[in-house]
Design a protein that fits this description.
The chain has about 375 residues and is mostly helical. It has 14 helices and no strands. Helices cover about 70% and strands about 0% of the residues.
C-alpha cells in the first residue's frame, strides 16, 4: 500500500516540479506570470494548484515519516544502535540531496534528511493523542509565523518593517517579495525567502509526524476495512478541497495581488493534511480494487521513487532546460509530464522484475549497511 501511494505521489509531483523546470522562478509562486497563453493553460493551472500543489509533497512527507518508523523497527533487528544507523542513513540522504541541489534548486532530499535527524533523535511517543497535539501545535506555529512575516510588508509587497533583525537579513537583497512574486525582479527577497524555507520545513516535518500517526493507528498500511477508507476519503476531501479551492480563488479573483500572498498560502497549507488523508483513503481503495496489472506498475514506480525522482530532475533540467525558460506554456509542459509518466511506468516494473532495487535505492542501501 505504501508503494502504491508513493508511486502516485512520484508521478504527481512532476505536475508541480515541471513548472520549475520549464518556467522562471516567479511562475512557481505567482502562477499568472508565465506559461499562461490560453484557457487551457488556466485550466491546467487551477487543477494543478487545487489537487497537486503541496499535496503531492504532503504525500511524500507523510510516507517519509512512515519510512523512518519502519527503518528503525527493522534496524533494531540488525544492530544494537538503530538510531545511529538511521542517522547515518539520513546523512547519506543529505549528501545525495546536496548533489541533487547542485543540479536543481528545488531539491527536497536535503531538507527531508534534516527533518529526519530531529525525528530520530526525539524520543518515541507511544500515545497517538500526543502526536496529534504535536501536529496541531506545528500548524498553529506556522500560522503565527506567517502572520508575523505578513506584517513586515505593505499591500504592494514592499518591505516596511524597520526592525533591526529585518534590516540585517534584508541587507543587500530585494526589499520586496522579489522574483518570488514579481517577474521583473532578478532575485527573491531575502526575508520572503526565509519565510518560504521556514514554511517548507514546517509543512514537511508536520506531514512526517502525520505519517507516523497514521502508521501507529495502522491506517497507512491498508489493512482496515474498505468502508473505513471510504469514510476518511470523504471526510478528508470535504475539508481539504474547499480550503484548497478558496486559496486559488483568492489569488485568481484578486488578479494575483501581492497582498494575498500570505493568506492564500495559509489556506492552501491548511488544506494539505485533510487532502493527504483523503488521497490516502482513495489510493488505498484503488490499490485493493484495481487489477494487478495496473497496481503492480504503480507500486514499482513507488519502490523506485528515489531513482525515478532524480531521473525526473535530469529529464527536466537537461531536456526542458535546453530549450530555455518560458519556451513552453503550462499545457505544453503537461505533454512532457505525460511522456515521463509513460517512461517511468514502463521501465520500473521490468527493472524490479530483474533486480531487487532501483539503482539509487541499491547504492543507498549498500552505503547504509556498509559498516554492519
Amino acid at each position: 500500500n505504501l508503494d502504491f501511494i508513493r508511486g502516485f505521489a512520484l508521478l504527481g509531483i512532476l505536475v508541480i516540479n515541471v513548472i520549475a523546470f520549464g518556467l522562471p522562478l516567479t511562475a512557481t509562486t505567482n502562477q499568472s506570470t508565465y506559461g499562461i497563453d490560453n484557457t487551457l493553460d488556466w485550466i491546467v493551472l487551477v487543477i494543478s494548484s487545487v489537487f497537486f500543489e503541496q499535496k503531492m509533497m504532503g504525500l511524500f512527507s507523510m510516507l517519509f515519516g512512515v519510512g523512518i518508523m519502519i527503518f528503525l523497527e527493522n534496524a533494531k533487528k540488525k544492530t544494537s544502535k538503530p538510531k545511529t544507523l538511521a542517522i547515518w542513513r539520513n546523512f547519506l540522504l543529505l549528501c545525495f540531496g546536496l548533489l541533487h541541489y547542485s543540479i536543481w534548486i528545488g531539491d527536497v532530499l536535503a531538507p527531508y534528511a534534516v527533518c529526519a535527524f530531529l525525528l530520530i533523535l526525539f524520543p518515541d511517543v507511544k500515545k497517538p493523542i500526543l502526536i496529534f497535539l504535536a501536529i496541531i501545535f506545528l500548524m498553529i506555529a506556522f500560522i503565527v509565523i506567517t502572520n508575523y512575516f505578513s506584517s513586515l510588508y505593505d499591500t504592494n509587497g514592499k518591505l516596511i518593517s524597520q526592525e533591526e533583525w529585518v534590516l540585517l537579513v534584508s541587507k543587500g537583497g530585494e526589499l520586496s517579495y522579489g522574483s518570488i512574486w514579481f517577474p521583473d525582479s532578478e532575485a527573491p527577497g531575502n526575508l520572503i525567502g526565509m519565510w518560504w524555507f521556514i514554511g517548507a520545513f514546517f509543512r514537511a516535518i508536520t506531514l512526517m509526524i502525520f505519517g507516523i500517526l497514521l502508521y501507529k493507528l495502522n491506517i497507512i498500511q491498508g489493512k482496515k476495512d474498505i468502508s473505513f477508507y471510504k469514510k476518511i476519503s470523504v471526510y478528508g476531501l470535504s475539508i481539504g478541497l474547499p480550503l484548497s479551492i478558496y486559496s486559488v480563488y483568492l489569488l485568481v479573483s484578486s488578479g494575483y495581488d501581492p497582498s494575498i500572498v500570505f493568506i492564500s498560502n495559509i489556506f492552501n497549507t491548511l488544506s494539505v493534511i485533510p487532502m493527504v488523508l483523503g488521497y490516502t483513503g482513495i489510493l488505498t481503495i484503488l490499490n485493493l480494487k484495481l487489477k494487478g496489472s495496473i497496481t503492480d506498475r504503480l507500486r514499482a514506480c513507488g519502490r523506485m521513487a528515489f531513482s525515478n525522482y532524480i531521473v525526473q530532475t535530469i529529464f527536466g533540467v537537461f531536456i526542458l532546460g535546453s530549450f530555455g525558460l518560458d519556451t513552453f506554456s503550462r499545457s505544453q509542459l503537461m505533454i512532457f509530464v505525460f511522456i515521463v509518466w509513460i517512461i517511468q511506468i514502463a521501465w520500473s516494473k521490468p527493472i524490479l522484475d530483474r533486480f531487487n532495487y532501483g539503482p539509487l535505492e541499491w547504492i543507498w542501501r549498500k552505503l547504509t549497511y556498509r559498516f554492519i
